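Person: Please work through this fold.
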Amino acid sequence: MKRFLAASLLFLSLIGLARAETDALLTRQVNAFVDEWHDDAANARMAYFDKIAPDGVYIGTDRSELWKRDAFKTWAKKYFDRKSAWSYKATRRNVYATADKSLIWFDELLDTPNMGPCMASGVIRKTAKGFEIVHYQLSMAVPNEVAGQVTELIAGHDKTGKQAGK
């Protein structure tokens, strides 16, 4: 009986180890996929849009930016006609998944040259062909200490239709 229990415990711990390695593998795969997606934008490669699901949604930092993939692609064309569209580098990313790993979500802290620190979250669907982004939301990371000032700038913008201070 002791041998059976020991063998059972060993078997269960090996299964746990395999699952942990699989989770680490999935995290590496997701990180590579999302990093490549960001690199596609940084190098104005249209493959960027191929990584978004046909029914995918992109939410930008402006409240008017709620895009379905094809409308987003049309809007962004002027940026992708240049050498670089935009550049986001993840400085931290957390990856989560359903038990069957068919649905993955992540959050990331981004370094951007034109907006400063940003945060984003996304949902990825795993298909027979690979990963595809079904939802991505980008936001500027506003320190709590200056949130009031930002709120005032937005209110001023809304009243005048112009950016406050210009």
